[in-house]
Amino acid sequence: MKDSTSANAFKKPRPDFPLFPHATGRWAKKVRGKLKYFGKCETDPKGEAALLKWLDEKDDHIAGRTPRGKREGLTVAQLCDRFLQAKDMQLDAHEISPLTRRDYERTTDRLVSQFGKNRLVSDLASDDFEALRANISKTRGSVALGNEIQRVRVAFKYAFDAGLIDHPMRFGPMFKRPSKKALRIQKAKHEAMHGKKMFESADVQRLLDKATPQLKAMILLAVNCGFGNNDCATLPITGLDLDCGWLDFPRPKTGVQRRCPLWPETVTALREALAKRRQPKDESHAGLVFITAALGTFAKDTTDNPVTKEFAKLAKTLGLKQKGRGFYSLRHTFRTVARHAKDLEAARAIMGHESGHVEEGYEHEPIEDARLRAVTDHVRTWLWPKLAAKPKAGQAAKPAGTARKTKRERTTLRVVG
Q1: CATH of domain 201-354+365-416
Q2: In whole angstroms, how far apart are CA 152 and each of 82, 107, 177, 302?
Q3: Which CATH number fits domain 76-194: 3.40.1000, 1.10.150, 1.20.120, 3.90.1570?
Q4: pTM of the predicted model, to two decimals?
């Protein structure tokens, strides 16, 4: 039934006003194909109260929810702001990386977009998180989906731990990481479409043959020591003992101490890279092994990583580029081959892995050098089956069995003997 006052008597106060006077004499807006009303035009001729009501209920209407009315409590936007402030403090304390901080910000942006900035955290229920999971899975694979779900859980756990909400969040039975079965199925599908992420030994040899001196040294560090992009980018010169053929350098991501015997080929490549190394523009980069052509660092706080880009160019030139396989895949290749050396503990020590086991707190003795050599020698034999037992003439570092025993190795042998 129409209002006694004709809607024609009222007009939008300005062209960009989001509401319009409906024939029923009420301010209205069409949302998701349905008309929504925000009060009478007669009592609110300029639409001021209607606009406030629209802005208050906007997120609910767009999401297809029944507006719950304005209530007091922590909103999704307030939670996200507080959470990111906490992450900023961790970033300043060097407890998380800039890339991790960026990932958390993208997650909070998703939460605001999905739930609305004015939605009360206390209103969120399991069906909201089921819808969020479904939305994420439209554009993310199983691994990325699991990572995003974990970041969401971290944000809401922070809210409870910080006393912003009275009870832990109830996500429901569906909002969890994909199962191991789902991960295996996705991996099989990916490999069927694009091939395995691991590089074969012949592929690595081709990459080494065509790589620039710097990139060749990085590739060898990846397959010799399980290095990733950031490991190479932040490697200090002081972490190398090329005369004895050893590397001592904690992994930047975890801070776990690593010690790795270097192959003769790796030592040679590092010497050549250092010989051609130019002085960086920034004095703070003077101690790094690798410097870019622009005289900067390979370590970047963005996903636009110079190591990734340089390697991608080489792989494309050799016809070895495929989806999901890049420089970091060389680290995975090392791990895959190293497992056949049958010393998981030594392989983990070389890679700087954290097992998360409670026993780590009681372990104080490092892995014996002989065990580390056995793992890297196994990978070297995989890469060069015919040359592994043949040291190069004049090489400072010698393969296992012929190299001068370190003090630690001699002590170990005396104790064992």
Answers
A1: 1.10.443.10
A2: 14, 7, 11, 21
A3: 1.10.150
A4: 0.63
